Amino acid sequence: MSASPTTAPDLAAEYSLRQTRSRAGEKVIRGILLAAAAVSVLTTVGIVLSVVIPTISFFSEIPVTDFLFGTVWTPLFANGQFGVLPLISGTIVITVIAVIVALPLGLGAAVYLSEYASDRSRRILKPTLELLAGIPTVVFGFFALEFVTQILLVRIFPGIDIFNALSAGLVMGVMIIPTIASLSEDAMAAVPSGLRDGSYALGSTKRQTAVKVVIPAALSGIVAAFVLGISRAIGETMIVTIAAGLEPRLSLNPLQGMQTMTSFIAAAGSGDLSTGSIEYKSIFAVGFLLFLLTFIMNIISIRLVRRYRQVYQ
To answer: What transmembrane ranges does the database entry give (predicted)?
Structure first.
């Protein structure tokens, strides 16, 4: 006995039911995604408010000019002074050393993995390189203090301090190499192979293709990797706390001990400061300044990425 044919009204009703279920499911998914986005936004707002409110209270007692342009930082002493320039100089010196180490090595590793390494070598080297990013930073800190300073640098610079900016910067540079190399290699891998083939067809070598074709085409991703690595170096805490010391010093000599903004926050935050005191509020003022620096760097990064981004069809 043959089944009765489905009529047009039945098909219309079934289609309407499917559409209703689809729209209901779509609304649920949209609500979940909106909630996920709202959590990240609200968390950011909460972090900003938790830093800004004590910072405003801090600047109601300490002039902004004294904070930004003062050359002595002794907030935890009696009659303390709150000139943040020693912390800024320490942060800049160590970050510059790290950048000098990480940018060429990270970009070189990315070019090798993208243009020269075989598939087998890439499958071995890239996970090994990324494994370096999983090492706890406290291990890097003790490595800088015990090995880099006391075994390597003391032989080259006999008068170097045990706690110094050079060892902290060198090891921090090694720490951010995987970040720069991995992200830069991903950006280079996204460059269409047709650009490489066209370069080879014109007689270019691998080096010429990598330098004059692949790197310019992936420049936006490389810039983003550089800025992310620099931001991570600025925000690093344990390496500078262990290897660079806790002495705020306005100096550009990397052989001396220095204190960075993050190391002060870590050291003061783990102390016995009374809540609401000016010393306690100074932690938030330094944290807010650090937030502004990284925020400005991210804005610059976004502008550079948008300027040099190339879209391929």
So the answer is: 28-53, 84-110, 131-156, 162-183, 213-234, 283-305
